[in-house]
Specification:
Elements lengths: L4 E3 L12 E20 L9 E9 L13 E7 L3 E9 L8 E20 L2 E4 L3 E3 L10 E2 L5 E12 L12 E10 L2 E15 L1 E2 L16 E10 L2
Antiparallel strand pairs: 1-7, 2-6, 3-5, 3-6, 4-5, 7-14, 8-14, 9-13, 10-12, 10-14, 11-12
C-alpha cells in the first residue's frame, strides 16, 4: 500500500459549502477484451472533479492502466483483481463522453464514476481482505482539519453474488459489476456522506461476499473532498 494522495490547490476565501455529488454513472463489462469504455454522465462543468473507481478481474491476474488525463489516487493489485481509484479535474467538454480503460490482458470490469463539484481530493490507503466479509473502508484523516468535507466509501468485490448495500449513515449508492455465469467477478460500489470532521471511519458496506471461489475478497478506500 502507498501513502495517502493529495490532489488540487487549497483556495481560501468566502463561506465554505459542502462539496456535492452532482452526477453519477456506473456499469460493467464482461466481454473478453483488453479495452473497456466507461461512459461519463451529462452535466459536467469545468472545474468539477471526475472520480473514477475501476475494478478489473482476470483468472490469471490483471492490471488496469491509468486512463489518459487522470491522476491516480490509489490502486491495489491482488491475485486476480486490480482496484484503481483516480481523479480528473474537468475542463468542461467531458459530458457524455467515454473514458477508455485498458488492461495488461483480457479482463472483466466493474466501475462507478462520480462528479464532484466544489472540491479538492484526498485518499486513504487501500484496505484489503481475502475473506468473504463486507468491504470495510479504512479510517482517513484528510489533512484538512475540521472542515465541510464530502467523504466517499469506495470498494471492489471479487466473487460476489448479490448487489451491495449502503454503509450506515451513507447515501447515494452507485454500483456496477462485470458479471458472467451468475457471478459478479468485479463489483465496484461507492457511497457518500457530508460531515464536518477531520477524520472519518466509514462503517462497512451492508453485504458480505458469498461464493467461495479461490481468492475471493475485496479492496476498499476512503476518499475525501474538501471545499475550495
Amino acid at each position: 500500500m502507498v501513502p495517502g494522495c493529495l490532489v488540487g490547490l487549497f483556495l481560501g476565501g468566502g463561506a465554505k459549502v459542502f462539496p456535492t455529488v452532482v452526477a453519477a454513472n456506473q456499469g460493467g463489462d464482461a466481454s473478453v477484451t483488453a479495452s473497456k469504455s466507461v461512459t461519463l454522465p451529462s452535466g459536467i462543468q469545468a472545474g468539477d472533479y471526475i472520480l473514477l473507481c475501476i475494478g478489473a478481474y482476470s483468472d490469471s491476474g490483471v492490471n488496469s492502466n491509468l486512463p489518459s488525463g487522470f491522476t491516480n489516487l490509489q490502486d491495489q493489485a491482488r491475485t486476480r483483481t486490480h482496484f484503481r481509484v483516480c481523479v480528473k479535474q474537468a475542463v468542461g467538454t467531458e459530458s457524455g463522453t467515454t473514458v477508455t480503460v485498458t488492461g495488461t490482458k483480457n479482463f472483466f470490469i466493474g466501475w462507478s464514476v462520480r462528479i464532484i463539484r466544489g472540491a479538492n481530493a484526498y485518499a486513504s490507503t487501500i484496505a484489503v481482505a481475502n475473506t468473504e466479509t463486507a468491504p470495510n473502508c479504512p479510517s482517513l484523516t484528510s489533512g484538512y482539519g475540521v472542515d465541510s468535507v464530502l467523504w466517499l466509501a469506495c470498494a471492489n468485490q471479487y466473487d460476489a453474488t448479490a448487489s451491495q448495500g449502503l454503509p450506515s449513515g451513507y447515501s447515494g449508492l452507485s454500483q456496477g459489476a462485470g458479471s458472467s455465469g451468475g457471478w459478479d467477478w468485479s463489483r465496484v460500489s461507492t457511497a457518500w456522506k457530508q460531515v464536518s470532521a477531520a477524520t472519518e471511519d466509514p462503517p462497512a458496506f451492508a453485504n458480505a461476499i458469498s461464493g467461495g471461489a479461490t481468492g475471493a475478497g475485496w479492496e476498499a478506500v476512503t476518499v475525501a473532498f474538501r471545499p475550495i
